[in-house]
Design brief:
Shape: globular
Number of helices: 5
Order of helices and strands: HHHHH
Distance between the termini: 20 Å
Length: 151
Amino acid sequence: MKTLSRESDRAEILQRLATLRPDSERRWGRMTAHQMVCHLTDACRMMTGERRIAPIGSRVRQTFMKALALYVPLAWPAGIPTVPELDQARCDSSPLTFVEDVAALRSIIDALAVEHRPSWPPHPFFGAMSERDWFRWAYLHKDHHLRQFGA
């Protein structure tokens, strides 16, 4: 299973990110490529606890959904709604230029690669997350949105 903690998987994500352009057309959803880059950066900040997100759903639902989303080998479908705090049409992320925001995303991905801690913040949909869970989610989330833009 691919994970952002594995160097080869991380390199794949960064290479795909390098193919993204500000005018890349989306295959689904509402975000532009630039908004998606900001969304991924904000999601990384959620992973580190820098960006707090309100929990959604019951503990039982979170546990079931986490197992399904992270460890069943299926690509995430189009149209999965995001939390309001990460919705680029509603939240307060103010993008810089496309190039600067891609560089910021690359930087946070590289910083996460060396991030090891005894505990991690909960995920809004999946609840308690181990380091393994978070790095698996991080890969899948980036893969999902890069596929959204054909990258």
